[in-house]
Design a protein that fits this description.
Helices cover 46% and strands 20% of the residues. By secondary structure, it is an alpha/beta fold. Helix 5 links the parallel strand 2 and strand 3. The longest helix is centred in the C-terminal third of the chain and has 20 residues, at 161-180. The structure holds S-adenosylmethionine.
């Protein structure tokens, strides 16, 4: 599958939705929840604030957010894959039933401007046909001064130990295991999606050119993951 094909990406995430959380746990050794929690610790969402989780998928980040704020009020999760949202609804219906799940496009949410205090995006930016347009839309719906945190894989330019580790991890761990379950093609997409994905200073530059007032980038998981911290 080519990168940037919004419909194909939606279909791909729909097709893996029932196994998505299982794979996330296996492929990150359960650490993805720790990285997501780290993002929340940095952003420190406060009870009463209104937050949105863009590219929420099966709802992991939104549910962690609700747990962090000790309330599921004023939380919206949005994703283009309807099957993933079904999983999210099922997972949240008992303890986090106030989370609102919206089936929509991160590039054109149709949500009112300047309404959110905070915005999260975990492993979403890399999948957008235009990360720049996604950042512009994120900025539009945030209140001035609102904060955003974007977590994703790091991409590496040129030879590096970390880049080599990522190649080995994707080629010899992620794709072979996903293939055992019939999802090799879907998970080989991660590598493709990283090819033109900016990291570090380039991500900062992209966010500032999209109009954010402040942008910072920090790494975690021994440099394999990156967090982009933004102020609208
Ligand atoms: C790798 S998953 C991440 C899911 C979740 N945030 C997590 O961390 O587990 C990427 C998600 O982005 C969604 N996505 C991709 N392009 C999108 C778009 N244009 N609008 C909304 N969601 C999109 C996919 O459907 C998928 O659920």
């Amino acid at each position: 599958m080519k990168t940037g094909n919004t419909k194909a990406i939606e279909e791909m995430f729909n097709s893996i939705s029932s196994k998505y959380d299982f794979f996330n746990d296996i492929f990150s050794f359960g650490l993805h929840r720790f990285w997501k929690s780290r993002l929340l610790d940095i952003l420190n969402p406060i009870l009463g604030e209104k937050w949105i989780d863009i590219c929420c998928g099966t709802g992991d980040m939104s549910i962690l957010l609700a747990r962090y704020m000790k309330s599921s009020e004023n939380i919206i999760g949005i994703d283009s894959a309807s099957q993933s949202l079904l999983v999210a609804r099922e997972r949240s219906k008992q303890k986090y039933s106030s989370i609102e799940w919206i089936n929509g496009d991160a590039l054109e949410t149709n949500l009112t401007s300047r309404q959110f205090d905070g915005l999260l995006m975990a492993y979403g930016l890399r999948n957008l046909s235009s990360p720049y347009a996604g950042l512009r839309e994120a900025l539009r719906i945030l209140k001035p001064g609102g904060r955003a945190g974007i977590l994703d894989f790091r991409s590496f330019e040129g030879p590096s130990i970390q880049g080599l580790f990522q190649k080995i991890y994707l080629n010899f761990y992620v794709v072979p295991i996903a293939s055992l379950f019939g999802f090799g093609k879907e998970y080989s997409y991660i590598k493709k999606s990283l090819l033109n994905f900016p990291s570090g200073e380039k991500q900062i530059h992209l966010a500032l050119s999209a109009g954010f007032k402040k942008a910072k980038y920090q790494t975690l998981a021994m440099g394999q993951m990156g967090i982009l911290l933004l102020e609208a």
